Amino acid sequence: MSLVSIFFTALFYLSLVIFLVGMARKIYQYWVTPAPLKIPTAPTPLTQTGVVMRLAREVVLFESLFKSNKWTWLFGWLFHVGLLLVLIRHARYFWPGDLPEIFLLIQPFKYAAFAMVIGLFGLLGRRFVVERIRYISAPSDYLMLLLLLVIGVSGVVMTFTSNHTDVIMVKNFASGLLSFDWANLPTEIHFLVHIFLAFSLLAIFPISKLLHVPGIFFSPTRNQVDDSRKKRHISPWALKQEQEQEVRLNETLGKDE
Amino acid sequence: MANDFEVPKLPTYLEIPKINEGIMAGNGPFKSVEEFQKPLGFPGEKVDNWQEVAINKMGELKSKYRSVQVFLDACVKCGACTDKCHYFLGSSDPKNMPVARQDLFRSVYRRHFTFAGKYFPKLVGAKELDDKMLDDWYNYFHQCSQCRRCSVFCPYGIDTAEISMAAREVLDAVGLGQKYCNQILGKAITIGNNLGLPEPALRDTLLDLEEEIEEETGVAVKYPLDVKGAEILLITPSADFFAEPHIDGLIGYGKVFHQDGVSWTMSSYASEGANFGMFIGSYDIMRKAALRIRKAALDLEVSRVMVGECGHAWRVAYSFWNTLSGVGAGADTTDKYALKLQNQLDSRYPQPQHIIEYTHDLIQRNKLKFDKSANDDKTVTFHDSCNVARATNMGGIPNGQFILPREVIKAVCNNFVDMERGTIMESTFCCGGGGGLLTDDLMEIRIKGAMPRMQALKEVEKTDAVDTLVAICAICKSQFSKVLPKFDFDPYMIMSAHQLVSEAIIMDKPQTDDSEAKVAEEATIEAE
């Protein structure tokens, strides 16, 4: 194997481990941190089914963002849907051996790359142009969009211009990563930039605002059932405190007469 | 306060202002002193090692509240909330944009609790908690009314109220409390109400009220206090006992109870619906205040607990009471603490119940008669109070908290118009005085924050000749009385919902013999 192949192979595993361990830790943290009070925001679902529907609408349609701002919604939704379709299509590279016919159906997903890139340009444009959003943006907010843009644009360049890379080699490399049957990767600059940034993104995920992905599912204002009068909701620390209450509350806040 | 500032002009359309950095910079509201801090268990003045205390407190809070932990991580700075806060729209200070307000807290979180913030602070906007930052916290977290409008529009439901409560809790922990809230809380948890009104004074006030109503209507409407064995315990904001227009609402509740013939009482021990513990973010103090109501309900052996017109009181009651003190239903069979009360309460009724739910139910069952023409001199619009609208429900039906108050109003009044859809219901604009901001030392932000609501009101004044603004929140009522004239409205146009009920309700004329006979008859039925 070439040096550069070894480097990228190692980078992949390193990023993947950081991603998996980091995300597991964050998700565990969200899981064990209690939500001591019922705080769903209107319009609230009164049933568990309602909560599932609400989260589904948030995740699939970005319902709240749509209510808020149509441009941000449009660009944000284009980007996310584009990214999702493009990612699904990337499964072809990681699939070992011949592709099942189902992959013919997802072949056209390559055009979703344009939706992704347009969305990203829109979001970046808003960050520069809209005064309020410029005010709240840190350097990392621009860099994150740039990172995604370079990944997207380099992918588009390889797919839709004459700068094709050797997809057979890509497939051998990518599927080899999963089956531990390591292979050399093509060394065209577009491709190297593309996967270097994609792997980096994986590593950045658990230490950045990309935590909005697990975050939405744990957000108490969105995932709670509005049934506080019907069912007693109490967190472990509050219950413990309640049991020790006579002593504790009276000590800190004074006795009732 | 002799602060010079311009009262915002009401635009034809609500516009998003150009940002104006530092326009609301300042020292914030009056600071609490040892006298008010100590009874709540907070340091009397800023502690020496305040940085260490603050960071530790942040760590504690994010491990106790998932909201805080998730909201600090999940924000992507998309800007969806930036034009949603009434304080930003009215003041144009960028730190009043919800995300920027949160970032005061988040930047410190990043610096001390995240990898990126520890090693690349500049890159991710992580900042140290220095004196300047602490001052900004005190100032800007007291320019948030915790109304949660931003949370409705956030793609992840990030609720600035949760962050502002956490920040205020940290501030209290380092000895920087707000005088208004903490002074009031001291009275609420020792005397039983925010005014510090002791039992004899309360009793006198209620007697005066009874006399006044009897003089006016010829009907002996009673305001019972500490009546053991009454069916309903009414918990209402203490402002209802003396403030205008609140007291007219209390008159309305009394008339409705009277017409229904139900036995009810108030408690001198728990004579406060408002619970400022929520504003300062303290679970313990909020619980302490809520426990007085539990004790009163147990002592008076009531079977129903009801809440008067008060926004955040209803939030605490509806959403938190079951958790804090067991006023509610559905406790585990092993949960002796909650069951002690829940077994006493009548499970056929929602516990707690809002006075609007109660009146609405009576109207549905044709138990009340109205002369709607008594309100024909008014064209009414309804202000959804933020805590009721975004944090509670009524009637157990989806969006009941928007539907029931409107149905009650329409049942007693012929002329009702809603304000623009984007400014009511879940998108309602705060009155500008909620969240512990209803104090004269915050008058500038209160007036500026009222602008978006005033603009929507001006619209319906122009188009539909609306001359009456109805609210079901004590803070909204007080705030509007103050700010309406600043925007060329009549300060007396703000009314309680139950004041409208009170005007239109047809009272049975007193027929002493009959009613005694009726009571005797009921007693026999019950005995059987």
How does this model look, in words?
The complex is a heterodimer of chains A (257) and B (528). In chain A, helix 9 packs antiparallel against helix 11. The mean pLDDT of chain A is 94. Chain A has helices at residues 3-32, 48-61, 63-68, 70-89, 91-94, 102-106, 112-129, 131-136, 139-160, 167-179, 189-204, 212-218, 220-223, 236-243, 245-253. By secondary structure, chain A is mainly α. Chain A contains 15 helices and no strands. Chain A has a single domain (3-250), classed as Fumarate Reductase Cytochrome B subunit (Up-down Bundle). In chain A, 71% of the residues lie in helices and 0% in strands. The radius of gyration of chain A is 24 Å and the shape is globular. With 528 residues, chain B is mainly α. Chain B folds into two domains: 34-177, Fumarate Reductase Iron-sulfur Protein, Chain B, domain 2 (Orthogonal Bundle), CATH 1.10.1060; 186-417 and 466-504, no CATH class. Helices cover 49% and strands 4% of the residues of chain B. Chain B has 23 helices and seven strands. Chain B has helices spanning 34-37, 50-64, 66-74, 86-91, 98-113, 115-119, 121-124, 131-140, 149-153, 160-173, 179-190, 199-217, 246-260, 283-300, 311-325, 336-342, 355-364, 386-391, 400-412, 443-464, 474-483, 497-504, 512-527, and strands at residues 232-235, 264-265, 304-307, 353-354, 380-382, 468-471, 494-496. In chain B, the strands form two sheets. A four-stranded parallel sheet of chain B has the order 2-1-3-4. A three-stranded parallel sheet of chain B has the order 5-6-7. The longest helix of chain B has 22 residues, at 443-464. The radius of gyration of chain B is 24 Å and the shape is globular. The chains are: A mainly alpha (257), B mainly alpha (528). At the A-B interface, helix 1, helix 3, helix 8, helix 9 and helix 12 of A face helix 2, helix 3, helix 5, helix 7 and helix 9 of B.
